[in-house]
Amino acid sequence: MKKINFYFSTKLTFDDYVHEHSFALRVIPPETPAQHIVGCELSISPITAVDHNIDAFGNNVTAGYIKGDHRFLDFEIKGTAETDCTKYRTDYMPCYMYQSAFTKPSEALASFLETLSDDLSEASVSERVQTISSKLSEEFTYRKDVTTSHTTAAEAFEINAGVCQDFSHIMLSLLRLNGIPCRYIAGLAFCDGETHSWIEYFEDGVWKGFDPANDRPVNEDYLVLSQGRDFADCAIDRGVMFGSYTRQLTLVRSVMQQGY
Amino acid sequence: MNENVLRGSADFTEAIGNAKEINELLRRYGVKFGIYKNGVFKEQFFPFDPIPRVIDAKQFAAIEKGLIQRVDALNRFLYDIYHEKKIVKDGKIPEDFIYISSGYLAQCEGITPKNRIYSHISGIDLVQGKDGEWYILEDNLRIPSGASYPLIARELTRIASPEAFRSNNIVDNRNYPDLLRETMDYVNCGGVRAILTPGRYNAAYFEHSYLAENTDSLLVRSDELFVENNMLWHKTYSGQKTRIGVLYRRISDEYLDPLTFLPESLIGIPNLMEAYRSGNVGIINAPGNGVADDKGIYYFVPKMIEYYLGEDPILRNAPTYLPFYKADMSYVLDNLDRLVIKDVAEAGGYGVVFGSDLDSEKLAGLKDMIMSQPRRFIAQDVIDFVDLPTLDEGQTVMRKADLRAFVLSGKTTRVWASGLTRFSRNPDSFVVNSSQGGGFKDTWVRSQ
Fold this sequence. Notes:
The structure holds two protein chains of two kinds. By secondary structure, chain A is an alpha+beta fold.
């Protein structure tokens, strides 16, 4: 068990006024057997009334509507959690067995998996996850600004480089091809100044975390914010607004510290 | 049954004489439907044929019972799929058929619509075989359109030929808006009724405005709606807001809420799904229904009736084969030239191929497609369904026709004693969809 203090903020700034702005945030970490949320405060500016719901995947959704003119939306969470790697979640959904919009495999992904078939045939689920990830890390390079949040697993694999989101999508695609139920995780980790992404796979009735971008199982330094079939289910913030702005600037900051 | 048709039309000579005027009135009324062809929106006149389809009371009672049973089972299935999934766990339907279906929406998991009704308005397409038996061709559970056509045609023929309605014991069909209003009110979560239209350039715009007027509902566009405090609101130009308790919509699920489904949707209502999940607004029909009217799932509906209701199905499916199953696959490949093949991803009469229309090269190509993507296709025996007398430039000719029956689920499940009879204008065609150039007839249900 490890106690961690977490902080995460996003500042959205528009170059012109916007109004009638609807948003949905998935930013409040869920209480699970593997992470106990001791406390978590969410602040949103401009100050607005929000509603808290839980979506189909078990995520906390904060929904709001800002009617009047504004030029920014800032939100931040601050809190303390106790993470425990010896405890596991069990909330299963059959859709995690199936490919989703971001993970549809290409022929290249399928043949990549094919090259590993000898190593995978006799192995346990955990061993297969590690084998696939290690091979992926050899071939695929971590690089910023070559992919966007819309890039699919097949597209990123084609480019052969990307960020944690792309590692996760490729990993999900390969694991599902191999018959392993798995899901996308958006969260915070010690290693990052932004949000991080990793995956969970289902073995022996429980979810186990694995970080393909760092090619290792997750430990108690990871805090889950949301989960789903792929990035589309987990976006930290989604919004729709009216206005004639042409640019939107997003500044993100996250801090994870050992708690006392 | 043929006798009925003849008797009905014999009493209807006066209206036949007025066919031209009635069609002219329908045209002026704006009874049209729009279709997109090669990316261009075209409004088409939906030709009305004055010779009605006539169904006698006894026959209709049997159809009615079968339709109620079918729709009740489909509603139970939808609840099950988005909650416990017992029918899959019990091995009645292979898991693949649920989760590969594009109509299954994981985002709807765990949502319980008010009174557990998912398909409030079901359009069930049937044909009558030459053996007299009725067969189900398709279930339409994502707000089927078309009820307004026979409604308005009846209104006009009533004027043109009052005598036909005095002497033929025809059940009045003018109660459709009342049935719809009761159905909406039963799942109203507090607020006014509203009918959402994507606007003027939509295939069902005529119907939206007609139904809004006749059910006393607001006719709204999505840019007049917003979600605040987990509730759905309509705003007027003067800034007043009115809460909406139940929303009838025909836009596809994927476009309904850009914060839950496709982010690029411009016709959706942000956070509508949050209000819906919280039980603050009813959506007619429920999002996620596509999993139950998938052409692949159709095969399993008789099994659903047995599973959920413990009853034998009253109405039969057309004999259907799933290449997904090995035995069916070899049957389909051996008999392809006399089967009709349907692509499960297509709707509106698209993606329907008759094996008999294909040359040997195309048959071979189709076989390869079926073998490589068995889940994508279903195959059916071609049902030799009845021809109905239809007027073609003053001559009575025989044309293939189907029937879309409308089933409304509220406090009880009811079948509208009428329906949309669509006929093919092409004497050699079995495809009767309006988007394929067919016409329509009124459907008379007799009270005796």
